[in-house]
Automatic annotation (TrEMBL):
Any one GO MF annotation of this record: transmembrane transporter activity
Domain Major facilitator superfamily (MFS) profile: 13-387
Pfam families the UniProt entry points to: MFS_1
Key words, A-Z: Cell membrane, Membrane, Plasmid, Transmembrane, Transmembrane helix
Subcellular location: Cell membrane
Species the sequence originates in: Deinococcus proteolyticus (strain ATCC 35074 / DSM 20540 / JCM 6276 / NBRC 101906 / NCIMB 13154 / VKM Ac-1939 / CCM 2703 / MRP)
Name this protein carries in UniProt: Major facilitator superfamily MFS_1
Length: 387
């Protein structure tokens, strides 16, 4: 039986999906510039240096833990209910940091935020895969990368500016999704895995093809494990080595998002010409080169160049396009949930892996050493099959 053609998707539906995608990067990016001041505020708390970094990365752990369940729920309930519930939890838990003074309550709110993000990310990406097919899917996923990174840059800069008032202020940005909920409610359909003729035609037994998917999960984990040194370590590196203010740190870290826009636009073209594993390998080499540049930088210029290269290497649209091409529609939510789990587990573990290296050597050595690791890890992906 041949698959039925995918019906056209309205521009407002596409816009709602793309704007919703920005919420996932906003979860961490918003408060990154306020970490140094937050660290000073909680300096008398035991292990404050680590706990403050966990404020940024704990949502990633919860996303990693909750995403497989969210994927299964989206396959069973449909995408839209999960998306709306995720947004509601996102607003409540995210904005709570504007008033919380206790580090442990703050960490609890960040954990709940991660559960909300897991629902948003899984449902949003599954909707894009369900509603679009072929080259159109590649384009929407590439534009997802563009919107995500534009939003991330804006939220980082806004977070840096608000952090100059106090470390609580950036948490107010988490109220913004309230403005997006009406568009989501009215324009996004509730798609279930077999709700359209095309998805019914593509339906297969509900089993994940692990043998084909594990390289994608490994690449996602390693990419974000290395990349997330930018928001967790670069602000401290800039403050300690160059005396940078929170707004300067926010602006420099935001360059990863500017580079991500470029990468997303390039993916719209390159994704049709080159195999996904080779694109992942090239991205890992860019991350490695960026980390080495940051570690060897003698001034702002080297850090800026390195951060930009890292942004070019953050190729999440490539992972999702690769995954949704291989995963059967009936288990697509689960497959995307596992990718989210892999990616955000890498985010969470990033400071736990990098901070001991920095303590044992130096922040500069940490960057260039992990850059070498990125190059060595990336090279084998040139030999991975796309199928």
């Amino acid at each position: 039986m041949s698959a039925a053609p995918t019906p056209p998707v309205s521009r407002l539906t596409s816009l709602a999906l793309l704007l919703t995608a920005t919420l996932t990067i906003m979860a961490g990016a918003t408060i990154a510039p306020s970490l140094p001041e937050m660290g000073a505020h909680f300096r008398n708390v035991p292990q404050a240096e680590l706990l403050v970094r966990l404020v940024l990365t704990l949502p990633a752990l919860m996303i990693a833990l909750a995403s497989p369940l969210m994927g299964s729920l989206s396959d069973r309930w449909g995408r839209k209910p999960l998306l709306v519930l995720g947004m509601a939890l996102y607003v409540l838990a995210g904005a709570a940091g504007a008033v919380i003074e206790n580090i442990w309550l703050l960490l609890l709110s960040r954990a709940l935020l991660g559960v909300g993000v897991a629902g948003i990310l899984t449902a949003n990406t599954a909707l894009m895969a369900d509603l679009f097919d072929g080259p159109a899917r590649g384009r929407i996923l590439g534009m997802q990368g563009v919107f995500t990174n534009v939003g991330g840059a804006l939220f980082l800069v806004a977070g840096g500016l608000l952090a100059q008032q106090n470390w609580h202020a950036p948490f107010l940005i988490y109220l913004l999704p309230l403005l997006l909920l009406p568009l989501v409610w009215t324009q996004i359909p509730n798609v279930r895995p077999q709700a359209t003729p095309r998805l019914q035609a593509e339906a297969t037994p509900a089993a994940l093809p692990w043998g084909k998917l594990w390289p994608i999960y490994a690449a996602g984990f390693l990419t974000f494990l290395l990349f997330y040194q930018v928001p967790t370590q670069v602000p401290f590196y800039l403050t300690g080595r160059f005396g940078a203010s929170s707004s300067v740190s926010g602006g420099i870290v935001a360059l990863t998002n500017v580079a991500g826009v470029v990468a997303g636009l390039l993916f719209v073209r390159l994704g049709q010409r080159f195999a996904a594993p080779q694109l992942s390998a090239s991205a890992m080499l860019a991350i490695g080169a960026g980390l080495v540049l940051i570690g060897l930088a003698g001034g702002y210029a080297g850090v800026v160049a390195g951060v930009f290269l890292l942004g070019l290497g953050l190729n999440y649209p490539n992972f999702t396009a690769w995954l949704t091409r291989l995963a059967p529609p009936a288990v697509r939510g689960r497959a995307i949930g596992m990718l989210s789990s892999s990616v955000f587990l890498g985010q969470f573990l990033s400071p736990l892996a990098s901070q001991p290296i920095a303590a044992a050597t130096s922040p500069s050595a940490m960057f260039w050493l992990t850059g070498i690791v990125a190059v060595l890890v990336g090279l084998p992906f040139f030999r991975v099959s796309a199928d």
